[in-house]
Amino acid sequence: MPETFPFLDRTTRMLTAALEPHLHPGAEHYLDLFADDAVFEFPFAPGGAVRKVGRDEMAAYLRTLEGGTVFDELALTGSYLGDGDDDDAAVVVVLEYDGRGHDQTSGALYVQRYISVVHLAGGRITAFREYFNPLAVL
Amino acid sequence: MSPVALDVMLKEVLGEQLSPGVASFLDLFADDAVLECPFAPPGGMHRLVGRDAIAAYFRELSGVQDSDGMTLAAVHRSTGQQVAVLEYHGTARSRITGSSYPQRYVAVVQTGDGRIRLFREYWDPRPVVAAFGGPQLRVAQTP
Questions:
Q1: Residue A133 is nearest to which of B39, B104, B108, comparing CB atoms?
Q2: Contact at CB, A78 and B125, closer than 8 angstroms
Q3: Residues B103/B66, Cβ–Cβ less than 8 Å
Q4: Best A93, A113, A133 residue to mutate vs chain B (most B CBs within 10 Å)
Q5: Residue B72 forms beta bridges with which residues?
Q6: Is the N end or the C end of chain B the one with fewer CB atoms within 10 Å?
Q7: Is residue A88 very low, low, confident or very high in pLDDT (cuts 50, 70, 90)?
Q8: How confident is the model at residue B141 (pLDDT cuts 50, 70, 90)?
Q9: How far is the C-alpha of A105 from the C-alpha of A111, rounded, in Å?
Q10: Chain A nearest C-alpha distance from B127 (Å)
Q11: Is the torsion defined by CA of A98, A73, A75, B72 positive or negative?
Q12: DSSP code at position A104
């Protein structure tokens, strides 16, 4: 039973809506979206590029983000479905979105912008590369 | 694959989505094209409209930094939407401080009628600030 990471529930809903035709229907929590061996990257993370392989490594990393910022709004601003094979076995979707939230301790406003390159196969995300502005991170 | 100039990379990637007559870098852009750098540092250029403004920006940029060219890492084409998303990286050198900095880019490039209508380039502001002490070029307008 994977951890649920409730602070990412809004992100999960946004990603589920954006990627719906390519995702298995049972995803409730963030890690449910990902394949067991998914590659997860934050190239512009404040402490240096983050790269995690597999849901276990992801979970350990996400635990370090718990208690930090949480989103109150997430709005998809762009969605581009890559040209793929007709069999739809693997697809790439690029998403742009804006987030507005707050720090759970200080209450400080958090405004962020994202572009993510998302690879999917078999109803799950196999690679997720999310770029955001490190200068906006609280 | 050795690094190439940005316009060479764009022409290669966009191929037949560009008018056959496109020759110079600025030919790539539509008259009313939009250039955006959403992650530019405070005081830097975040958005410009129009080929003339874009031309002036790139001219000024080439006055303050040298690029060693770009290496394409991935292209995601959405032909129906006339969009290509490019991931690439390169090294540039500040002519002001002499510092070189590595950079990683993601660009959303939308074409129409044989020209680029939107070039939205995301990159990490930190190496720019480290090399220049701020944005490459200061602009009056705010995002």
A1: B39
A2: no
A3: no
A4: A133
A5: B88
A6: N
A7: low
A8: low
A9: 16
A10: 11
A11: positive
A12: T
